[in-house]
Amino acid sequence: MAEPLDASQAQRERLAFLELRAFFTGELRRSDIEARFGIKPAASSRDLALYREIAPDNLEYDAVGRCYRPSPSFAPVFEFNPNRVLAWLLQGFGDGLDLGLKQAAPCEGPGQLTRPNMHVLGSITRSMCAKRATRISYLSLSSGLKRREIVPVALADNGLRWHVRAFDREKGRFGDFVLTRISKVQEIEGEVEERELLGADEQWARMVEMELAPHPGIEHPKAIEADYGMHDGVLRIKARAALAGYVLRRWNVDASPDHRLEHSIHNLWLRNPQTLYGVESAALAPGQREALESAVNG
């Protein structure tokens, strides 16, 4: 049996790409490889033939869909870093394989403390691409381990962890499910309703423009303006309503109308808090809960 390392570096990247494409979207066509790498049909056919020689049980040909699909016994040939896979899903399938090249300059980041299970992620993304519902085991903080029926529609990174945006059939609305809390994913046969698909998610479709300014409590606001490249003392950003609260929490933005939070922790202030009206994720933003409790208590 052939080994991936027997192939050239360029071909290994193509093999890695076709495996990713098949596993995480549930389908693969020769044209996918050709479009990604700018190669001829004969070359993509050779890549597929080599991959099937390496892993003969991984792909099945779907004559109706005219594509290859991962088999029930699919076992990845390549070992992929979860963060890199999530980056591919976020930004599109990029250069395929992490070749472990030496960095041009020392560079480190905070890293991720949470790592989703790749089989769970693959099941979710395949269902998403096929527009199918899934039955999952989900471990929540409020109700513990419970079986749920969801229709996955999008993936989102909140800066600390990844979640799947999905229609929750039990609650009859869209919500967020943390990927690392999902297990035992089973695709449900049958068509889903339009109201369960991404086009019906109003919070996802709505764009919110937020004006971030240095917190009024900061003595030298010019330093904050320089940090964020502000113009005229403000940084204007747009985010989906479904994600706006996550954005504000990630950057520790004081979202209270009267900028009541401690400026040494919250360097930024949302100077147009009215933009969060009707935004469900706003409850996650620093200062919003305190402002709501203050309004309720008079």
Structure description:
It is a single chain. The protein has 298 residues and is an alpha+beta fold. The protein has 9 helices and 11 strands. It has 3 domains: 76 residues, Arc Repressor Mutant, subunit A (Orthogonal Bundle), CATH 1.10.10; 81 residues, SH3 type barrels (Roll); 91 residues, no CATH class. It has a 5-stranded antiparallel beta sheet with strand order 6-5-4-3-7. Strands 9-8-11-10 form a 4-stranded mixed beta sheet. Strands 1-2 form a two-stranded antiparallel ribbon. Strand 5 and strand 6 form a beta hairpin. The longest helix has 17 residues. It is globular, with a radius of gyration of 23 Å. The mean pLDDT is 89.
Tell me the fraction of residues in β-strands, as a range.
15-25%
Please estimate the helix content.
Answer: 25-40%
- Cα shape: globular
Unreliable stretches covering 5 or more consecutive residues = none
Number of domains: 3
Total of DSSP H or I helical runs spanning 4+ residues: 9
Largest sheet: 5 strands, antiparallel
- Rg, please? 23 Å
Distance between the termini: 74 Å
Quick description:
The protein has 298 residues and is an alpha+beta fold. The protein is built from 9 helices and 11 strands.
List its traits.
9 helices, 5-stranded antiparallel β-sheet, 4-stranded mixed β-sheet, 3 domains, 298 residues, globular, alpha+beta, SH3 type barrels, Arc Repressor Mutant, subunit A
Q: What's the helix and strand layout?
A:
Blueprint: H1 9-25, H2 30-37, H3 41-54, E1 59-62, E2 67-70, H4 82-91, H5 118-130, E3 133-140, E4 144-157, E5 162-168, E6 173-178, E7 182-188, H6 202-205, E8 207-214, H7 221-228, E9 235-240, H8 241-250, E10 253-254, E11 268-270, H9 288-296
Parallel strand pairs: 10-11
Antiparallel strand pairs: 1-2, 3-4, 3-7, 4-5, 5-6, 8-9, 8-11
